[in-house]
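Saturday, quiet lab. Running sequence design on the structure tokens for the scaffold JK sent over.
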């Protein structure tokens, strides 16, 4: 009998990679807070969750396809998540959409969620080790 790590770890392994990429995106936003015209970006996790739901629960089974060169391109994907622009609460005169307090809060929230996914993976692996040892 073989161990299927995808089933054992669930979506948390992919979530860990997405959280890491999101921290890079949020850090980039913070670094460019004073760059004129810079647009704040973020990853859409709900798109990834919808893709990884069981087929009976997935409500958005539509695939985008460009049939003509004049059509809009599908959204940019990063590790399966859509890269989106953030709408600012208060627009800056220089066109920059980064709001430092919002980005800092999102970064802290992402760090907590990253740690939660990491703890879940560690606990799952510890449970597998316990089962393999026969304890």
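Result came back. Writing it out in full:
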């Amino acid at each position: 009998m073989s161990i299927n790590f995808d089933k054992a770890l669930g979506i948390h392994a992919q979530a860990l990679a997405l959280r890491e990429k999101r921290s890079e995106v949020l850090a980039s936003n913070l670094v460019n807070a004073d760059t004129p015209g810079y647009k704040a970006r973020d990853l859409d996790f709900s798109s990834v969750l919808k893709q990884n739901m069981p087929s009976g629960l997935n409500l958005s089974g539509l695939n985008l396809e460009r049939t003509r060169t004049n059509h809009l391109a599908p959204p940019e994907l990063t590790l399966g998540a859509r890269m989106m622009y953030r709408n600012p609460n208060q627009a800056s005169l220089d066109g920059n959409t980064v709001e430092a307090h919002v980005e800092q809060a999102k970064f802290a929230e992402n760090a907590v969620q990253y740690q939660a996914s990491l703890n879940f993976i560690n606990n799952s692996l510890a449970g597998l080790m316990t089962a393999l040892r026969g304890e």
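Notes for JK: Residues 56-60 have pLDDT under 50 and may be disordered. The longest strand covers residues 81-85. Ask whether to fix the surface positions before the next round.
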